[in-house]
Amino acid sequence: xxxxxxxxxxxxxxxxxxxxxxxxxxxxxxxxxxxxxxxxxxxxxxxxxxxxxxxxxxxxxxxxxxxxxxxxxxxxxxxxxxxxxxxxxxxxxxxxxxxxxxxxxxxxxxxxxxxxxxxxxxxxxxxxxxxxxxxxxxxxxxxxxxxxxxxxxxxxxxxxxxxxxxxxxxxxxxxxxxxxxxx
Length: 183
Fold this sequence. Notes:
Blueprint: H1 11-23, H2 34-40, H3 51-54, E1 74-88, E2 91-104, E3 134-135, E4 142-151, H4 159-165, E5 169-176
Antiparallel strand pairs: 1-2, 2-3, 2-4, 4-5
């Protein structure tokens, strides 16, 4: 996309950027809010309301800071169950299921302060960095995997069939998880 990222986010430049993005398999670029394109058309906003700025988090600001730094609190708990059928009659199977819960405080901007009970309608107080705790954005609560191996027997009376179909090993695997949750 080259110089298009530093170009003002005008409709003409946005159209050029979308053609370039589509050429490499990227999705269309949309403006974060209606007034962003109007700001790009002004002399004051031309250098600030760029296509690159439109792609940032909170593009209406030139920058944001997190006073409390790159810290997080995460907890992960799971129940893991495995069932295995050992090799017999040429067949082996394995089934694995995981039920898990991952909680963190990384999905939001943190307050960094304890919140007294009198400040909330619930009347509950919260210690530092606890009110933001929720399901992690990359939590996978259910995971199911199954795989198996089958040894094709080669004991057949017909020599041609035994030569072509005998001695093969077939395997298959499948893994499924529900759609990820978004917060």
